[in-house]
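Need the bound structure for nicotinamide-adenine-dinucleotide, inputs here:
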Amino acid sequence: MKPFVYTAQAGRVVFRADVWSTLKPEVAQLGAGKAMVLCTPRQRALAERALEVLEELGAGIHDQAIMHVPVDAVQKAVKAVKEAGAGCVVALGGGSTIGLAKAMALEAALPILAVPTTYSGSEMTSIYGITEGGVKKTGKDPRALPRTVIYDPSLSLHLPLGISVVSGLNAMAHAAEGLYAQDGNPLLSLLSEDGIRAMTSGLRRLSQQPQDVQARSECLYGAWLCGIVLGSAGMSLHHKLCHTLGGSFNLPHAETHAVILPHAMAYNAAAAPEAMHRISRALGQPDTPAPTALYELAKSLNAPLALRDLGMLGSDLDRAADIAAAKPYWNPRPIDRDGIRSLLQAAYEGLAPGEFR
Ligand code: NAD
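Answer from helper R.:
Posting the output first, comments after.
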């Protein structure tokens, strides 16, 4: 066995289908006083329910979470927390809301209780991002890791099927890259494989019946495992490309992950055969190359397949390849600018992975 180092991330996870009876005792257990509930404007009704069950432990609602965590939104939220006398935050929502909580934790040392309602996995990581002057700065800081996470599959019952699918594929990307990470280890590989397996099964069932709570449970369980991997292993080509496309070309986060993943896997396939074998197995297609099996799954779930359908311009592909290849980073196959450019062309057109080589 290859030598490895594994550092466990501390954090309490409660998985049950009744957040409303769990929330108050879990906030009390943080021992940080009253909680401010954070959400997006769209999830205000859910936050009101949370505030109601928190009773005297609720300090109010701040419903101004937005994508990419602008620094002024963080300052406003911290001010609201201070004025309300809250000692901790409940982040109720997807990666954007949890991202706001993380930035607040860095600024004002506020413990976070996260209640995720998408499959982004952010709740299991200490990775944060803050946007200032049009640039998103990301980093890792243990203070950004939620102290408690409550997973309740019933909260995602009304997550639209299209968002559920791309969010699930976003989660699978963490696991896929975890399987070939330079700092991977046998435990993360187990989590990755089971995460992909559970997400595949859950998404297939959801596509038939989006309000099947068992299918939602499988997806959420998969999201948890994939999130642990994201928080523990170094990510490579796929995540760097998505960061470039989101940050410099404003493409939507989860949709971009869904389109890029089969192509990033095809780029890396020959350099990471064991990872590909495990991904194919987890996708339930042991005899099909992993990038093809993933592309076929995405197609069958009606996920977007082409960057041009997400608003990418063909005339920007050269610049995207330049940016993605500019700063060297570890990847199973060395980063070469022409290979990246071909990958982006295939993803732009929505071709099957590997077709543009
Ligand atoms: P999101 O949080 O932006 O949510 C998308 C939309 O869906 C929002 O309008 C939200 O209100 C709504 N929504 C969320 N849950 C819902 C539900 N159950 N029912 C109905 N509507 C719901 O999307 P996301 O994909 O979860 O997060 C994306 C952001 O998270 C990006 O900025 C990304 O960079 C970040 N992210 C960070 C990490 C990390 O480890 N730091 C990991 C993954 C993603």
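Comments: The mean pLDDT is 96. The chain has two domains: 12-156, 161-349.
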